[in-house]
Write a structure and sequence with these properties.
The protein is mainly alpha-helical. The protein contains 38 helices and two strands. A two-stranded antiparallel ribbon has the order 1-2.
Length: about 725
């Protein structure tokens, strides 16, 4: 019989053999019962009371198999017990199994043992077999391990023919391993053959197939093995389907045949074999044995695995919805899947759900919920969660900064093999050694960075490169530094790309090249580095290393500002104020300056102060402007000092005071704001020459002090 049905993913599936038909039959009956609301009436209960034990047993089986509308193990257990108490042997067995497995009743091995014993006394083979299993491994507090007794029970069960096939297999394994009997491979093979060939027992067919395939206890016979695998597969032994599929997949024992392998994988998968499902997913994802890659089928197979309760597949299916691979992008559905898997205790799902709350993907951004989930996954020893949790403690994100706790979590993740954590532990040891002037020890840091480099970890390339540049723990070597930075850049390490750009920009350790600098800024910016976007925008604004393009400069400042770069927000305000790459919008410029002032950005105070002083974008207010200039000057902003000096020189908002104005111009100049000197020169000719002389004397004093310190160090 061949039955087609729609899987959870809406794809047509082929089910072959009895298992598929029963599954479909149960599905149809269950759907009909939902529509009719079928339940057992009081009249049915009354009729049942007039039935005999055999009829009660049949009623129990109907409930157990779902033939009364739905599978109802509780109701089945009631009727099994009722019939068992009337000495119905099959009911004794099924009632004992219900107690052992906790199907419809509380799990109770002691009660199960009693009923197995009752049934076994009648010579019931399955009960004798189950008793044998009890004695084979023992049940703490119920029965002691007794392998000889187990063998005796298995032996008794074998006389029942087909019903004793499981006992034959168990007895064969006892002879194979020498448990309860003297080891005897011939007898083992006899019982395997007896169960497999005489009684067509599926698990025994599988065991015998393995023996012939590997030449274990029998001369190797691949053709015979394949035949036995097929027989076991045909009789519903899913491991047989899967193992034979693997042989055809690998092609090392039998000729490779991917069509045959795929067919067998589907046989096993449709019966719920999870490994077969995952191999099918891999084949469809990579186009192995298929006409091509089929991401839609991948999603469908993940949906089937989710339906079967495979928690890993919840996470993988969520990834498909997040990325829109094989299905439409649906971040809300991804969150539902991750939430369900998290509730069921899956740590990776918990970690991924934390990231959703961090990024606001499928849910609102919620730092508190993110930290709760991150901590839960970290406590469950999930390495990536431990690493991210450590970063939170290091950066003070969601928690009060605590470097000791950060280091503890980094160490924990490092011990579990997380490369990023191992690199961070190396950074900790390097920083610690930097502080130990007398006897710095960089060896541990170098060892961890080198290990990361050997395993292709981008950040480790970068950190080891810094060590070579600074000569810490290794000989100073700019060529090696450049080599390591370039390797990190190939791994798309943002910081390495940015630092490469800065070194080419400044000619530090490499030949100066504005063009190379701009190229690396571009690569880092493409990876989302806000500082790189900002620096690239400056390149486009000034035409450094690239063709001058004020619009690209504006876009770069905008991107960096949106990612929280404070200085970029000030520059974006300048673009709107001066019409650089965008139409002039003085109100927008003032708004951006206001935001930057609120964030404490020093050079925003002078700009906003200028707006209030001149009434540009806001209503003119000299007192407000003066307050802003003072605050900027207190934050050591050269332009704010210059503007404050101008207020005193021109008497804007304060009483005119040339001397005070010159002092602020001087501070502006000292802070590198060149216009300060121009202003002083206009008020006090030759003042700059005197300043240069003072600076030269100061530099000579510093050089002398530094030389004396070096001499003392060498003596120590």
């Amino acid at each position: 019989i061949k039955v087609f049905f729609l899987s959870a993913g809406g794809h047509l599936r082929l089910l072959e053999g009895g298992t598929g038909f029963i599954f479909l039959f149960q599905l149809i009956v269950w759907e009909e019962s939902k529509e009719t609301g079928a339940t057992m009436s009081q009249a049915e209960v009354a009729n049942a009371e007039e039935e005999n034990a055999e009829q009660w047993f049949n009623r129990a089986r109907q409930h157990a198999l779902g033939r009364r509308g739905r599978v109802n193990p509780e109701e089945a257990a009631v009727w099994y017990l009722k019939a068992a108490e009337k000495d119905h042997v099959e009911s004794m067995y099924f009632w004992a199994m219900a107690c052992e497995e906790g199907q419809g009743v509380n799990q109770d091995s002691k009660t199960a043992l009693e009923w197995f014993q009752k049934a076994a006394r009648t010579g019931h083979a399955p009960s004798l077999y189950q008793l044998g299993l009890y004695f084979q491994s023992g049940k703490p507090g119920i029965v002691l391990e007794d392998k000889k007794q187990a063998v005796d029970l298995f032996q008794q069960a074998t006389v029942a023919g087909r019903k004793g096939a499981s006992a034959m297999l168990a007895l064969g394994k006892c002879y194979e391993k020498g448990e309860g009997v003297v080891q005897d491979h011939e007898k083992a093979m006899f019982w395997y053959h007896e169960a497999a060939e005489k009684h067509e027992h599926p698990p025994s067919l599988l065991v015998l197939a393995r023996c012939y395939m590997k030449g274990d206890k029998v001369e190797q016979n691949v053709e015979r093995a394949v035949e036995l695998y097929r027989q076991a597969s045909y009789r519903g032994e899913t491991d047989a389907s899967f193992e034979l599929a693997q042989y055809f997949d690998k092609g090392d024992v039998v000729p490779r045949d991917m069509l045959e392998a795929i067919d067998l994988y589907y046989d096993a998968a449709e019966a719920g074999h999870m490994k077969a499902l995952h191999r099918l997913i891999e084949c469809n994802k990579n186009g192995i044995g298929m006409s091509g890659i089929d991401l839609g089928m991948v999603v469908s197979l993940y949906q089937d695995a989710v339906y079967l309760g495979d928690l890993d597949s919840f996470v993988r299916l969520a990834e498909c919805y997040q990325k829109g691979e094989g299905t439409e992008e649906d971040k809300e559905e991804a969150v539902k899947l991750l939430s369900e898997a998290t509730e069921k205790g899956h740590t990776e799902a918990c970690f991924q759900l934390a990231l959703c709350y961090k990024r606001g993907e499928g849910v609102e951004v919620d730092l508190e919920r993110e930290m709760e989930l991150l901590e839960r996954a970290a406590q469950a020893k999930y390495p990536s969660a431990m690493y991210k949790y450590a970063l939170c403690w290091k950066k003070g994100r969601g928690v009060e900064q605590d470097m000791e706790k950060a280091f503890t979590w980094f160490q924990g993740a490092a011990q579990l093999g997380h490369l990023g954590a191992r690199c961070q532990v190396g950074v900790y040891f390097k920083a610690k050694s930097d502080k130990e002037e007398a006897e710095p020890d960089y060896a541990r840091a170098i060892r961890l960075f080198t290990e990361g480099v050997n395993r292709g970890h981008g950040p480790s390339f970068y950190q080891l490169g810094l060590c070579y540049e600074e000569g810490k723990g290794v000989p100073q070597n700019n060529e090696r530094m450049l080599e390591l930075f370039l390797a990190a850049a190939e791994k798309k390490h943002k910081r390495a790309l940015f630092e490469l750009a800065r070194r080419f920009q400044e000619g530090r350790g490499v030949a100066q090249s504005d063009q190379q600098a701009a190229e690396y800024f571009q690569q880092a910016a493409d990876l989302g580095d806000p500082e790189a976007s900002f620096q690239l925008a400056l390149c486009y604004r000034d035409g450094t290393g690239v063709v001058l393009d004020v619009h690209k400069a504006f876009v770069g400042f905008q991107i960096a500002a949106e990612k929280g770069h404070k200085q970029a927000k000030v520059m974006l305000g300048d673009c709107f104020y001066e019409g650089i790459g965008v139409s002039v919008d003085e109100k927008k410029a003032c708004d951006l300056y206001e935001q930057s002032v609120a964030e404490g950005q020093a050079n925003a105070f002078s700009r906003l102060g200028g707006c209030y002083q001149d009434g540009v974008g806001v209503e003119a207010d000299e007192n407000k402007a003066l307050d802003l200039f003072r605050e900027g000057a207190n934050r050591k902003d050269g332009e704010a000092c210059f503007c404050l000096g101008g207020c005193y020189v021109e008497g804007k908002g304060v009483e005119k005071d040339i001397g005070q104005g010159v002092q602020w111009y001087q501070k502006a100049a000292d802070l590198g704001f060149v216009k300060g000197w121009y202003a002083i020169e206009q008020l006090q000719p030759h003042a700059y020459d005197k300043y240069v002389e003072r600076r030269k004397r100061k530099i000579e004093q510093l050089k002398t002090a530094f030389h004396e310190k070096q001499v003392i160090r060498q003596e120590l």
